[in-house]
Every structure is written in C-alpha cells, then in structure tokens.
Amino acid sequence: MEMTEEALNNERLQAAARFKAFMMQNSTKTNFNLYDHLVRLLTKVMDERPENAVDVIEDMSRELKGSILQEKQDTLRDNPSSSSALLLAEQQKTLFKRAASGEGDHEEELVDSPLPNVAELAFFFEQAGVGLGKEEMQRIFLALKQLVDTQCLQRCRIWGKILGTQSNYLVAEGEFREGEGEEEESTEPSNEDEEREEESQEDKDEAELVEAADPPPKSTYKPPPPVPKEENHTGVNKFTYFVCQEPGMPWVRLPVVTPAQLTAARQIRSLFSGRLDVPVVSFPPFPGNEANYLRAQIARISAGTHVSPLGFYQFGEDEGEDEGLRDSFEENPNFEGIHVNEMAESLNLWVHHVQHILTQGRCVWVNITKKSADDVDEDAEEEEKEEEPDEPEPEIGPPLLTPLSEDAKIHDTPPWSSMISSYLIPQFSIAVLRSNLWPGAYAYASGKNFGNVYIGWGLKYIGEAYTPIMLPPPHSEYPSGPEITEAQDPSVEEEQALQAALEEQTAALEETEDLEEEDDDDG
Amino acid sequence: MDSDSLHYSVDLAAGNGLTLSSEQRAALQTSLVILKRSYKFSRVLFWGKILGIKCDYFIAQGVEEDEMKKKKSLYSLNCLDWHLLPQATESMTADVALAAQGRFTGDLSHEYEHTETRTEGEGDEATEVEVTVKVNEASRLATTVSNIDKDVSVVPRGAFTKSPSGKVQINRSFGGLHPTEAAKLRNYLHFREPVNLKKKSILEMSDLNPALDFLDPLSEDIPKGSWSLQLERGGTVCVLRSLLWLGLTFFHVPQTPQHGYIYMGDGLINLDLPFML
C-alpha cells in the first residue's frame, strides 16, 4: 500500500514538473513564459490586494505585460521632447522672476504702479460664478504686471478674454499719458497705400489683356467719403488695447479702430480664429484683418457693457457744455457705495461709463458731406443700445452715465439680468449683472468696488437667425441708348410704306438734279 | 463630468469663463451624494448650467448599470433640491423647435406660444386652419438637454467599452490618450447611439475595434470645423469646445483617465455657424 501511495505521489510530482516545464516554455514571439508571468501577477495581487481581484485580473495581467515591455532599454537615445507645453512653460517661467531693482525704486513703484488688483477682481467674479480658474487668473495677473513694466501706461486693467477656434486672446486695456504711445500710427496709412497700389497694378494687367477694341464701361460708382477716424484718447479710441494668446506670451498692441470697421463689424457674424494676421472672410467684406475686427468688437462690447454704480463717476465741474457732448468724467470722492440689494434690484443704479457708438461708427458725430452721411445711416441698421429715430443729422447718442434702465430690449429679451451672488448669506453677497446682449459680459458691485469683465466668443446676441444683408442690385452695364434698345421688327406694310417714301425722295432728288442740269444747259 | 471629481474638473473646463461659485460647489457636493442614494443611481454626473434671464438651471444626470441607456436628467434651481425632467419625446422636440424662441426665462411654467396657418385637406376642400403650439419651459429644458447630449456629448476613444451583450461600461484599463493622439479629433467620440457607423462600408470598418469603436467620431461631423480643439493650462489639458452649442466644454488630461464635459451657456443652438466658418 505504501509503495503504491509513494508511486502515486511520484507520478503527481512528475506530472506537475511536466506541466511546469510546459509553462516555462518561452513564447516564440515575445520570449516570455507563462510561469514567470503568473508568478509576477500573483505577487502583484499579493502586494496590492485589489478589491474583487478576480474581476480585474485580466486588466492587471495586461498592465503587467505592458510594464515589462516598457522596462526594456531603448537602443535609441532619448529624444528630449520639445512639445508646445514645454516651450510655453519656458516662456511663462519669466513671469515668475522678480525684477532686479534697487530697494528705493521698489517703494515708489508700489505707490505709482497702474497695476490693478486682478486677484481681488477674480475673487469677486468667482463668487458670481465667472472666472478662469485660480492659477490662470494668477498667471494673467503676472502677465499684466509684465505689460505694465514694459509700457508706460497711466491706467491699466484686464478687459477680458475672447475665445477663438484655434487659440484665445487675453485682452488688456490701457491708457497712455497724453502724447505718449502714438508712434505706431504712422505705419498704417502706408499699408493702405500699398494695397491701393497693388489693386491698381492688377487693374493695369487686366486692362492690357482686354483689347482696346471694345473698352469696358467705366464704373460710375463713387464710394461715399470715409468717415474720419477718431483720434487717440477720444471716443472709441480712448483706450489702447493689448492682446496676448497665453499669459507669458508677448503682448501685441491693437491698431486704432476706424468707423468703417465698426460699421462692417456690425453687419457680419464671424468667429475669431486666434491669429491676428489672418483676413476676415465675410460678407460684406471687412476692411482689415482679424486684429482690426478684434479691435472693433472690443470697442462695441466696451460701449455696450461697461457699467458702474450710479454716483461712482461724476462729470467734471469745469465743463459747461451740454450733456450730449461731455466725454470725460472723474471719480466721485464722496461716493459712499450703494446697498447690494438695491443694486441687484434696480437697473437705475447702474450707468454706462463708456460712450455710445453712433451708427456712423464714431462717438462724436462729424459732418462729412451731406449725401454720404445719409448713406452711412442706411447701411448701419443695427443699433447698439437705443434705437434712434431716423433723424437726419446730426446724430446724438445717449449721453455718458446713462442708466441701464434706458437700454432697449432685443426681441423681448431684457438686456441685463441682475442677481445677488448668495441667497444663503445675503449680508456678504455682491450684486452681479449679466449682459444678455453680449453673452459673456459681467459686472459686479460690492460696496465701493465694482468691476467689468468680458469672457466669451465676441458675438452679440441677435435674438434670431442671422441673415446676411442683401446684395446691392447690379449696375447697368451700358447706358441705355437708341442703338442698344430693343424694338419690334417693322411689319410688311410699314416696310412698303418706308420704301415708297424713299423712292419718292430719290425721285424728287433726281427731278431737282435734272432741273439744275437744264439750267446749266440754258446758261 | 463625474460628481466625485467635480471639485477639480470644473476648474479644468473653466476656460470659457463660467464656473461655479464656492457656495454652489459646496452645495453640489452635498446634494449629489444624496441624489445618488435616493434615485439608486450607480453614478451621478454634473451636466452643467443653463442660464435663464431670471435664474439659472443646474442639470445633473444619473446613470444606472448601462452607461448609455436609461440616463435620467434632473434639474435644480438652487443646487440642492433636484427634480426629474420629463423624457424628451419626438413630438415634444418638434413642438419645442417650433414654438420656443429666445432665451430661457428661468420660470419652468412659462409657456411659449406659436401660431401658424396650415392648409388642411386637398384640392378644393383645402382650408386654412390656425394651429397654436404651446410648450412650457420644462419640456423645452428637457429637449434642450437631450439635444445637446445627442449633438455634442463627447468621450475620448477607449474610455468606454461595449460588451458583446450590448452593455456599455467604463473601461477600467483606459489610461488616457497619448499626447500626440489627444491632438487629433478622430480620437474623440460622440457618446450617443451611433448614426453614421451603420452606413460605413466593410473596408472602413476593418480597422475598427467593435469593443471600442462603437460610437461616431467627431471628425465626421458636418459642417467640418464645428469643434475647437486646444491645449490649455500650459499644454497639459486637452480642451474641446463645440461651436454648434457654444458653451459646451470637454476636457481630457492626456495619459490619465480624467475626462468629462460640461455645458455652461444659454441653451441656444448656434444656427449661424455656417456663416462663421
């Protein structure tokens, strides 16, 4: 009996050894064997003790195989990745470096710096449910500091962010001191000249191709004279705007906006791509590239949505002009702050502090020749805030510091929604205003503080599907005259009558000739 | 996005300017846990926020065992009390498309009315009848949520698997897309019943893995260019924004299983998209 048991044991051992040998056979493909794999897998299970181990065993097995493959040393040298993330990180690193300066200067800077407190702004807007995340706001803060350090600005604030399809724009609003920061303007007209030259060149080429036998008719269309743009520090060009794509990237100064661009921007609906130099593809054609379009939209958004509590700003006393023309104001030192509940309930307590843009594309109306002014009026049908009755001229927009309650509705949508940030702790909440006209524009007010920001796609809410404007009727190719007007063919009777008349004429002629000849003969 | 990871996912998808305030976040963390229990959901997703003129709607979704079927949507006005939204039926969607105009008001009982004249009968018997379609905002909200889910809900490829029995489940071994793959639109899929997949030829299907590629990729959307794919946060987060439903943001952190989408907007489809591209 003992012998048989021993033999059985022996056999079992042998069978086990045979199976172990089978399991230790290396795979011809991967050069692994099952035995080692199972050992590793079970060790892993023992070490990690996952819950419901039987359910996840396949995944663990796969992971294990993967990790073995990764361990293999590569024969190629490691390629240090230069991904876009790394490049950006290197660029952003400069933001976090402290500027090396003497300590004496430092204190002066603290007092004089036009740098706004972005952290405070972010804190308040975060309560309103608006923001870009804490770290991002901090980076923007640092980027703004960089801007203030490099440009000599009198005032500066973060305007907002405009989303694009490929990248986004961070927009900062700055105000230069009088007479500074105007060096870039001279470059613009030269650009336009170049374009004109190119156009005329093309025209010439085409003209050579078409033979002179049948000259094409000259266009009689005369474009209306362009509305002159507003100077720096006035109207829509009161502030200068800087954009960058990511905090840490260089700030780019946007060109000044022209009335033609504002008028065109009102008629088109186009997303931003995120690159300043691409042309805007639209109908009607937009005069300029994306930088100009961006600047135009910024001007429109600012005019529509920059609001402050009533009484925060007041008109200067020295200005005795009538209300519509006043374009400057100062901070009211006696402003006490308005209670949050009142601010949230009544739009009367909020006022616009950026001038309304007229349909002409300027803040202050200017009389260009009378005919053209009418044309411009017809083109610009979209109004920013209040629908002006079709007064011929001059146009007058609502004056500065007009309450929001005067804003017009768009398709029964009130232009503003107001709320308080917290209903649970109302005593510490802030009043929040959301624009329905420009989705993405927000304002808050808390005590003596207020702020405006825009984060969105740069598109206005129009309340209905967009309809591009109709094409103008085509011009007549030739002036209509007798040689190209169609007439009915004459009937047989008419032809016969005409022929008879002609014959009579010739007969009469011949008779007179005969008479003359006879006279000659007589002579 | 998953309610458990809400506290950091909201920040990752905050690039379009709208986030949740601290008070709302705290309230959601409390109420969604209770919601999960009381409706017996296996997972609760915070879906987003629809802005109304008077107040905003917060939307959450609960899923049961199958991740795709039997999704239930709930709304709340204060992030605390959740109520079920009605299921969007086809007739309801058609009525809402006809009648609902303009922005959401913020009042669920608000009624939208639309009157139009239709001709009934044929030939000489044709008569013009005035038909009035009435829908309330609750059904508009329900259809908007279901439309957005149908049009632009996104998951990265491989995040969900379909078992042979047809059950869709989270892929436990999904480790995230590789950074180079994450920059390609075809690696993101519509999380809805596939529409285009059935129309594909055998040749096109040959490369697809039936367990993973059971959904339509975003790269086949019409019109082309209705998505904006960007790398944010210093290139570490892949963010997709829909241009058709402005306000939908999807994020995925490459090489991690973190992904999710959130809608924060006014609930209006961007019909002008063809003019903008």
From TrEMBL, chain A:
GO biological process per UniProt: axoneme assembly; cilium movement involved in cell motility
Biased composition (Pro residues): 214-227
Keyword Cytoplasm found: yes
Segments of skewed composition (Acidic residues): 180-211, 375-394
Keyword Cytoplasm among record annotations: yes
PANTHER family (UniProt xref): RADIAL SPOKE HEAD 6 HOMOLOG A, RADIAL SPOKEHEAD-RELATED
Major localization listed first in the record, in broad terms: cytoplasm
Region span, Disordered: 175-233, 373-408, 473-500
GO cellular component, one term: radial spoke
Family matches, as InterPro entries: Radial_spoke (IPR006802)
Keywords associated with the record: Cell projection, Cilium, Cytoplasm, Cytoskeleton
Protein name: Radial spoke head component 4A
Subcellular location field: Cytoplasm, Cytoskeleton, Cilium axoneme
Automatic annotation (TrEMBL), chain B:
GO CC, one annotated term: radial spoke
A Pfam family hit: Radial_spoke
Protein's UniProt keywords contain Electron transport: no
First and last residue of the signal peptide: none
Keywords: Cell projection, Cilium, Cilium biogenesis/degradation, Cytoplasm, Cytoskeleton, Flagellum
Cytoplasm as UniProt keyword: yes
Main location: other
Gene Ontology biological-process annotations: axoneme assembly; cilium movement involved in cell motility; motile cilium assembly
Cellular localisation: Cell projection, Kinocilium; Cytoplasm, Cytoskeleton, Flagellum axoneme
UniProt-listed InterPro entries: Radial_spoke, RSP9
Family: Belongs to the flagellar radial spoke RSP9 family.
Protein name from the UniProt record: Radial spoke head protein 9 homolog
